[in-house]
């Protein structure tokens, strides 16, 4: 008789069917491993490749010679990598000035947008005032309307106010952020009401509750909104292109239009790729530094 709790063994030394099924269906079993690869790793690898390969190809192309970019034979890696394209881009456009313009517009615009999103979301979540639900519905409608619809009215208004070729003319029309306000409002509503009630009993007003209670415990979500706003401000192209004609006020994405690609001129392709890399690198550095807040901010309050 086999001991209790110990599976019996057949005469030929093989494990019983129950143990075979346990090994086959365990965490490292073949079926589970294939399922994990098919439903997890494979889609992740494909999504990463779709996103990363064009960026990698752009970086590699900026290091190639013009003859290696425009050729009938595919050249994966440059034979003699060089930074000549970056130097050529620096001589054709004022990279330093464009970078400074983008930094000014991004820092001021993103700071004001995040501040407005925090205060507006707090008001929609905790302050009682007439037509609050109507205002929230209009904000949701604003999420569905593309910003290009207001391009002409905004230009007429800013031009009449004398905002053409000015920093405030670039910043002002985009100060409203429906996405950030919506995300913060939904997060604020998920906060424990006991904390706010305790602060109110202690005599805290709305301003004190916002600064000392709501903002400290909502740092991941606020950081998420700030990161999305920074990336949006830095990469904005259409409105700065419309409102600026002076190269001294152009942002970096708009300034790259001065690197015009002349048809048949193969030497311009590496220069254009180099300019695109200079636009993307600062955003990628900021994203890499703050990307952990995205997951924490978007999932905070989802599980209680």
UniProtKB/TrEMBL annotation:
CDD domains for the chain: TM_PBP2
Keywords assigned: Cell membrane, Membrane, Transmembrane, Transmembrane helix, Transport
Region (Disordered): 1-25
Keyword NADP applies: no
Cellular component terms per the entry's GO annotation: plasma membrane
GO BP field: transmembrane transport
Domain of life: Bacteria
Subcellular location: Cell membrane
Lineage of origin: Bacteria, Bacillati, Actinomycetota, Actinomycetes, Nakamurellales
UniProt-listed InterPro entries: MetI-like (IPR000515), MetI-like_sf (IPR035906)
Family under the similarity heading: Belongs to the binding-protein-dependent transport system permease family.
Record-linked PROSITE patterns: ABC_TM1
Protein name: Carbohydrate ABC transporter permease
Membrane-topology descriptor: Multi-pass membrane protein
Record domain ABC transmembrane type-1: where: 99-290
Residue intervals passing through the bilayer: 33-60, 104-127, 134-156, 168-189, 210-231, 269-290
A Pfam family it matches: BPD_transp_1
Biased composition (Low complexity): 1-19
């Amino acid at each position: 008789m086999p001991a209790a709790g110990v599976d019996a063994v057949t005469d030929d030394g093989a494990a019983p069917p129950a143990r075979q099924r346990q090994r086959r269906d365990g965490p490292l079993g073949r079926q589970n491993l294939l399922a994990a690869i098919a439903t997890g790793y494979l889609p992740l690898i494909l999504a990463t490749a779709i996103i990363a390969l064009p960026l990698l190809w752009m970086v590699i192309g900026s290091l190639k010679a013009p003859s290696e970019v425009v050729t009938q034979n595919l050249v994966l890696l440059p034979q003699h990598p060089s930074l000549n394209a970056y130097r050529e881009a620096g001589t054709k456009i004022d990279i330093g000035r464009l970078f400074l313009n983008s930094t000014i517009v991004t820092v001021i615009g993103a700071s004001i947008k995040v501040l407005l999103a925090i205060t507006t979301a707090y008001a929609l979540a905790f302050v009682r005032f007439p037509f609050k639900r109507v205002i929230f519905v209009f904000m949701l409608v604003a999420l569905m309307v593309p910003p290009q619809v207001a391009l002409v009215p905004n230009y007429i208004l800013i031009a009449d106010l004398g905002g053409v070729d000015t920093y405030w003319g670039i910043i002002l029309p985009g100060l409203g952020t429906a996405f950030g306000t919506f995300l913060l409002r939904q997060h604020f509503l998920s906060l424990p009401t006991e904390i706010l009630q305790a602060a109110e009993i202690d005599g805290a007003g709305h301003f004190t509750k916002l600064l000392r209670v709501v903002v400290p415990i909502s740092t991941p979500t606020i950081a998420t909104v700030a990161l999305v706003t920074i990336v949006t401000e830095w990469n904005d192209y259409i409105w700065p292109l419309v409102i600026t004609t002076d190269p001294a006020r152009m942002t970096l994405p708009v300034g790259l239009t001065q690197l015009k690609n002349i048809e048949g001129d193969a030497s311009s392709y590496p220069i254009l790729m180099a300019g695109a890399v200079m636009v993307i690198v600062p955003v990628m550095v900021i994203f890499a530094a703050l990307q952990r807040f995205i997951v924490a901010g978007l999932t905070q309050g989802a599980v209680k």
